[in-house]
């Protein structure tokens, strides 16, 4: 008990870091300027609302008479429904999964508590789980990212949602608790994004935790800080699926997504012309590879900094000069950090940048650029647009800082629904797998998605591109020593880190 | 006299086409979502204004006590000044020209009337002209594109501006007339964008027209519909400079700009993922070349339609399949028109498109897509965002139409200040050239910018890129038969059409 | 007469420059390592030949008993025939022209003397001219470039060919003279490549020259040194067609061809890996654009030098740093010259290059690199492969010089038959046009190919790519003010210089 | 004994497959048209040699009086020395390793037998091993790939080389045996390429085998057929290092190398123009990714076939249409196989290809294209160049088959010395590691190169590109949980399969 007490103190520290939690990677897939205001009318719903009453103090009932939910305004359900319908258009893999498995109801009996961003895309996932037989209770993993109208639409059809945009810290944990703690309802599956829900159940409902059949976690933090740590400490008494490190997610969330969002994020915030600009990209992992490829293609002159000789050699072969930041700091127009490291751009370097240069972060958190060092009296900050600050030196030099150093693609660009579809499909399959796995297949450990399932997720998304897979003949399969239906990668293959 | 009367009737017809004037090419450089709302506070200034009084009915005085202007609100001058300062950062060529020529005042005595979009970038041009000695009176070439705060800032420093956002048709001509018709002030230079100002002077002040020393015109319409027609008819009694067809403008406004704005326009409106998308680009001129290059680089699969065998062959060599639209209409995700033609995408073809496909126009006007054919009772239009309509077929199929078929890059993306700087510098130089040209150098005709001047504009912009020109040695210049300082293109070289 | 005498002295000087004539642009399309040794057996035919007798001293008769030709060995005709058949596969446009026009024999009565490289591709052209009704007599424009077996094959079917590989200077003019000077045969058309034939007729047969109905010339030298000079001097008494500056030729010979041949030339000679290499390309015209695009795509880091601000600005926007050569000379791995200028790379700069760096020329002649300056006693030359010299400095530094500074793509790579097909088709059409043009259409001047014909050449080549042209509707043609069948470019459009 | 007898029968079967052994991957790095004839004089040395005496029957002595070697002609040593010196220029990493470790002689006492291709690049490796203290005896892993002059040069300085170009099968094993079986000399290290040497020692010298301290093997065959099989069977009594699957080798040998060699191989054999060509690439692993990237960059239109949904999705996102081969077989100009599979292109499909289309293989062996099916009476084969056959159908259709379906980049293009340097450096480090590893670090198993060593190899090659690594600060290293000097990849990272 004592130890738990102590850990709660630690938790409190985590709580106080709340605003920066927005910077964690997993968030990047869900809150974006546009997805929250994709309908102009939506914006007015939310923003012009003179309704300042806390949802916790409201009494709301959906059209079926149920009140087992807590959202901003149940009346906005119809609008949210339309958002969900639009999202469905680009999530055909999930819809297809829904159709294929609807008959056999592979999640019949599953009682899932979920803690994710609550957006139109998540709604498509939740409604798929329901269609496959599950009962779901849901809460938000971030206090800002909930699309209120979508939460209303889910509540309207009977999903127990506890979430709204702009929760307080106290609201956040209250909502989580409401999800779990329901008379006569014992969750047996967890879908988490960030580990907060898992952690809460582990601490507050240790007995309930033991009855969980499986945890599906998709964030770096949740996987590497909670699950692997718990497992190492021998305290993980349920099998867990690490969705974060699946191949499809890695490639899509990082390489391909960043290739598009770096351009989008820079344009929306600064209208900068890419042609001829000198750019330095710090870090040449998957994120850096995506950013450099896009900028090179648009006519920028791109430099790379790296600590790892192998990634450096790749950068060379891909046509980028590998330099130390100080070598180019006076000449570049744009700095982009993608390292996962801290203080990659220091005050000293910011002092030497050109007037009008742009600094932003595509990496893991707001530590990459030493933004704190810019909050000193001699520098003036001028907010020129949402997410765009001019930091002005005494001599009049302006450096343009985006999103205060937080993730650019999280704050200033959108993530295509197609990419969210890949993650959501993976989550659904992971839940099905864990829920239906025969006794003994999974121990009390953290697992990667089976290769075959990764391939299945990919194959469900090929129809979007009208791509036609070639099938092995019996003879060819034998020659290669493969099953005709996959998996097509050998057992020793595992792709878990950008290179 | 009679003929003028008749022509006025024609003018009226032009007036009734006002809303579509927004579609003309020249506009593309100035009104964009972002440039008009680049400061969030700016937006509130303008939008939340409960001041519905027409500027024509207001009495306003700037801080120096002058009232020779008519803008929305002179009190917003300070905000506009900041916008201008920010624009100056990316217009170093113009600032550099200002500094170089400030001593000799090459425009001393010039009385310039201007009719252009009134934006921060134009303000930098106007203030450059003033710094070089000119007196300026200015009005807007478009009823929607004026940045009110910038107009105020100009009026505050004594430029006589007559323009505001949201003018009526009557206001438009009233403003033009106020610019020209000032007691004791006779314009001797015209800077026009679209030909309306030129036309008005020609019609209303035929005597004044003859005293003009030169006209500088930058729009396709102004050049090819007015100036060349007047010249052909023998009625152009002043030399005119065709800025539209200068090399720098063609390449930058078309190839390089479209390469960036096609991505920006599509992302801002639809958040579409480019990777793997099948796109057909109609037309492979400079605009089409820019669009296809960008989309190919982002991982789209791009098809091209063309009528011209030479451009077709280029498309082939650049790696695009050249098809008829009907061959791919059922499979493509995105159609982009860049032809300058009409009815390039017909209702019949729209009927055959896939659910969720996107249709937009990067060409010359809203005629390329037969949008009118979609305004029929059986189709439902749903406005999902600003500039984005879902057109819904009876079977539920949705086609996403952007900007109602008007120019995407005009409506839904921004144009970098750097590109505007090129045009503005060209305009300034053209004015200087015409104003200072010795008697006889220019006849009553339409001229292209002298090659040397084109090169000078380009050279002024090289410092932005820290580009270093190589200089010819005497021996090399002799070998090539060139002057060491250019022009570097032979006399027979003229680049005036995309190929 | 006196003046002619004097000019002959000048001609002599030209003769003494013979070896460097190989460097002229027009040559680039025909002699290549591979086309001359495309059959291994061919090589042995030619090389192992112990037959050192001059063809002028031989008595040869073809299988029909004719002896009006002079080639290396008429017995090799069959082998040459196979080379021609292979070339025909990639020249479907010419074959198609042959078929379309074979019935009407548009060249019936034409007596054409030709002076070009004599290769399999030229043979396809010549046989097309014959099929269209012409009588042809042919000679080589270069003393080294003749494919002897092809010359034999042509002679075998009755074309009067006077050419062999390895002619002496005296042989060269003897062959030209034999072509023209035939009893009872008066040429009425000239097809020239380099101007030598034209010049000879002009000087030696002034009366015959006047009877020529048209000259078709394809080389820069022939066009700009001879034809335009003659025309300027009022001495060009026949219409001439400038094929060199046609759109298709410019784009294909320069941009697209160089994009491929720069890679091919470097690989075949040095096996260099492109990835990560630092390369400076001097000159950013069409040739430079092609080279830089290819190398950038292969992962090289490319710098550009330029004298022209407009091309410099393009280089910037295309993503290349524009530098002075001295800024990067110590760091680059490869220098490529594409300027058309002389002494672009000086001895002083070669002294500063790195050990192992490569220097080559893609521009107009061997003057771009100051190769002469390397022929000094302190430097050692070591020939390591054909066309590859190591120049060794006293400290052991080696610089790799390709083709002794002559054109790389001429000497060390091949030109695709498809590109030769474009030029050959253009030449055929130009001959047809001049021969059939109604009196008065062409004066005694130099003409560009009519736009429509340029487009026709392009359209004949589209089938190779299975490209499908879109046709204008009547309504669209009217809207654009174009004829439905082209030309599709406006009258004021003329593309004649790389930019 | 019996079992060995039986296995020898199997070996015999292997022997009979000798010619196809040329197709195995490991070979690709060494025999290439150019590396064997890089000096024209070299070619003549070898080819024109009228010396048909078997080296085994010759008595040769080097200048020091030693005769412990067997090569073609010891007198050609000087020429070989020059080849080695040229190779050293591009192998600065190995030279640098030689200098760094020369003092401490980390291989003092090592007695290495090697079986690899014997080329100038291998010579640089061998001489590095000698410089670090090793005694070396060497033989060739392929009967065709030995550069005789290089073998002579090595023998001249005292390395015991037993190899020549054109060995018989019997010679091959005689040479291997001579390497091992030397009075008073017991090898303690093996460097193998293909497993033949290892196998011979294992079978013939079981006692000697046990005294080996380590095996370094670089080929797929050697690693996956011999070492892992032996290990699985519990018969591998020495630690072995799998160099084949090191990151640097995978990326360089496959992705980056193929990106260049596909273009080179196609050009050298066919002079084909890439622009506008339709190409289908079968397989989208690293090799396929390299090929498609290069061809797309050169303006080809590229289709991909795949069996694996994940690779398919990558192909889509990279901008390629994923099709079944039959969908495009009639329209493509070029087919390239990169699958590692067999019968990927069948006779039925070859029957449907276009006239003039090209078929080649970049994958693992000559099984990918069903070449055997083309050897039927109704088809005519015509050899048009070295490595190029026209297969002619009864209707005259020609399909161009390259290298008879064997590896194109092995047969028809070269591999840059820089890439060979990476592999050679890895081999040297692996030998040093195994030789010096403390007791117990390596068991009797197959190991991948330690991550840190992979990174060291990479770092040694960065200077070639003048790339500058960024160093972690103490604070940053702590934040990332990394040692400042690497390894920089987490433990769970392993890259062993193309994806």
UniProtKB/TrEMBL annotation, chains A, B, C, D:
The keyword Nucleotide-binding is annotated on this UniProt entry: no
Annotated GO CC locations: cytosol
Matching InterPro entries: Adenosylhomocyst_ase-like_sf (IPR042172), Adenosylhomocysteinase-like (IPR000043), Ado_hCys_hydrolase_NAD-bd (IPR015878), NAD(P)-bd_dom_sf (IPR036291), S-Ado-L-homoCys_hydrolase_CS (IPR020082)
Annotated NAD(+) binding sites: 285-290, 306, 409
Residue stretches making up the S-adenosyl-L-homocysteine hydrolase NAD binding domain: 254-415
Low complexity compositional bias, start-end: 28-47
Alphabetized Pfam families for the sequence: AdoHcyase, AdoHcyase_NAD
Family: Belongs to the adenosylhomocysteinase family.
Manner of cofactor binding, per the entry note: Binds 1 NAD(+) per subunit.
Cofactors (names): NAD(+)
Binding site for substrate: 119, 193, 218, 249, 253
CDD domains: SAHH (cd00401)
Record protein name field: S-adenosyl-L-homocysteine hydrolase NAD binding domain-containing protein
């Amino acid at each position: 008990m004592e130890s738990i007490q102590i850990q709660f103190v630690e938790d409190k520290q985590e709580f106080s870091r709340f605003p920066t939690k927005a910077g964690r990677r997993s968030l990047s897939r869900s809150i974006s300027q546009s997805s929250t205001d994709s309908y102009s009318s939506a914006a007015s719903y939310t923003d012009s609302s003179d309704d300042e009453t806390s949802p916790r103090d409201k009494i709301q009932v959906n059209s079926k008479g149920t009140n087992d939910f807590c959202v901003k305004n149940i009346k906005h359900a119809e609008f949210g429904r339309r958002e969900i319908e639009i999202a469905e258009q680009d999530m055909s893999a999930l819809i297809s999964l829904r159709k294929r498995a609807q008959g056999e109801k592979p999640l019949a009996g599953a009682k899932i508590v979920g803690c994710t961003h609550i957006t139109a895309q998540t709604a498509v996932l939740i409604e798929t789980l329901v269609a496959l037989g599950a009962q779901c209770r849901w809460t938000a993993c971030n206090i800002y990212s909930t699309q209120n109208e979508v939460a209303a639409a889910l509540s309207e059809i009977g999903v127990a949602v506890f979430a709204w945009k702009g929760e307080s810290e106290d609201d956040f944990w209250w909502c989580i608790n409401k999800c779990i703690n329901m008379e006569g309802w014992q969750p047996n599956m967890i879908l988490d994004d960030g580990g907060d829900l898992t952690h809460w159940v582990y601490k507050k409902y240790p007995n309930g935790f033991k009855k969980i059949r499986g945890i599906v976690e998709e964030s770096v933090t949740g996987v590497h800080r909670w699950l692997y740590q718990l497992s190492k400490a021998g305290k993980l008494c349920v099998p867990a699926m690490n969705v974060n490190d699946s191949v499809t997610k890695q490639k899509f969330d990082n390489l391909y997504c960043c290739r598009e969002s770096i351009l989008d994020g820079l344009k929306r915030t600064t209208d900068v012309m890419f042609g001829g600009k000198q750019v330095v990209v710090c870090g040449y992992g998957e994120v850096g590879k995506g950013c450099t490829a896009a900028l090179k293609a648009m006519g920028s002159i791109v430099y790379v900094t790296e600590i790892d000789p192998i990634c450096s050699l790749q950068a060379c072969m891909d046509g980028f000069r590998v330099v130390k930041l100080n070598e180019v700091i006076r000449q570049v127009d744009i700095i982009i950090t993608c390292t996962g490291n801290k203080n990659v751009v220091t005050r000293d370097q910011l002092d030497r940048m050109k007037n009008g240069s742009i600094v932003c972060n595509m990496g893991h958190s707001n530590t990459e650029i030493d933004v704190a060092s810019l909050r000193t009296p001699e520098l003036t900050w001028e907010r020129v647009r949402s997410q765009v600050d001019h930091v002005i030196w005494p001599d009049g030099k302006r450096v343009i800082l985006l999103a205060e150093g937080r993730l650019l693609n999280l704050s200033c660009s959108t993530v295509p629904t197609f990419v969210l579809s890949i993650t959501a499909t993976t989550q659904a399959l992971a839940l099905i797998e864990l829920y239906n796995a025969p006794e003994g297949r999974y121990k009390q450990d953290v697992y990667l998605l089976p290769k075959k399932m990764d391939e299945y997720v990919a194959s469900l998304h090929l129809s979007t591109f009208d791509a036609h897979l070639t099938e092995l003949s019996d003879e060819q399969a034998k020659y290669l020593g493969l099953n005709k239906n996959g998996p097509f990668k050998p057992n020793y293959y595992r792709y878990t880190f950008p290179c």
